[in-house]
Design a protein that fits this description.
Elements lengths: L18 E4 L6 E4 L2 H10 L7 H8 L17 H15 L6 H12 L3 E4 L3 H10 L3 E6 L5 H8 L7 E4 H4 L6 H11 L6 E5 L2 H10 L3 E5 L11 E2 L5 H9 L3
Parallel strand pairs: 1-4, 1-6, 4-5, 6-7, 7-8
Antiparallel strand pairs: 2-3
């Protein structure tokens, strides 16, 4: 992969990448029900109809981010995510109230089950066997390590970096720099993979990491290297090492 964020090629990766970081939601794991469905159901119960794709697209844009400026204490987690949920409802064109926000928070807190994508466990083991050190970089709450463990992907991860611990969320460079600092490597030896163009691709590139966008459907919203599935990642990295 070239050094310019505008490169469109996904078959060119640097040969000196030693660490691979991955996003969690939408990349390694998926929720049941999905975040988009939780918002749609809460609005539908109040007579508002919103299509799933519109909500899903909104959740991948920086407009819904409520910026952190310091790490979240456990006491502030609910307050923070309440603000995030209110922002989503606002950008969908509706007003939220306490009852709606309580319902959404409950749906995210209790019934959601996070599951690994079918190829996720296998690709992590393959990358680890190939000598790569693995980690995640996620906009997430302190429950993330337990979520990863329950989904069966934690054992292959060396580092877990999440926004409520760092005090910044992707695409802010602070969270990416914290991840490479924990790994003990310079940014140019790290590759980040995620499904959000703004948060994952542009965020990682802005912090000096290499990056690839996971775009399972449709086309990337901007010029960038992209893959259709995590299964393509090992092939790309192998191609990079073959040019040494």
């Amino acid at each position: 992969m070239g050094s310019r964020p505008g490169s469109r090629r996904a078959d060119v990766l640097p040969s000196d990448v030693s660490h691979v970081f991955l996003d969690v939601g939408g990349t390694l794991l998926f929720p049941e029900p999905s975040a988009a469905d939780i918002f749609r159901r809460a609005l539908a119960r109040r007579g508002h109809s919103v299509d799933r794709d519109s909500v899903s697209r909104l959740l991948h844009t920086p407009e819904t981010v409520v910026s952190l400026i310091r790490p979240l204490t456990q006491e502030r987690v609910a307050e923070y995510y309440r603000s995030v949920n209110a922002r989503v409802i606002e950008h969908l064109g509706f007003e939220s109230d306490d009852a709606m926000l309580n319902e959404i928070h409950h749906q995210f807190s209790t019934p959601v089950t996070w599951k690994a994508y079918p190829e996720a466990v296998e690709i992590l083991k393959d990358l680890r066997a190939a000598g790569y050190r693995l980690g995640v970089i996620s906009n997430a709450s302190p429950t993330l390590p337990e979520t990863l463990r329950r989904a069966g992907v934690a054992t292959d991860l060396v580092t877990v970096t999440f926004s409520s611990d760092i005090g910044a969320e992707k695409p802010h460079p602070k969270i990416f720099r914290a991840a490479v600092a924990r790994a003990g490597i310079p940014p140019e030896q790290a590759l980040h993979v995620g499904d959000s163009y703004e948060a994952d691709y542009l965020g990682a590139r802005g912090a000096g990491l290499h990056a690839v966008l996971l775009c399972r459907e449709g086309r990337p919203p901007g010029p960038c290297p992209s893959i259709r599935s995590l299964g393509e990642l090992a092939t790309l990295l192998k191609a990079g090492h073959s040019r040494k």
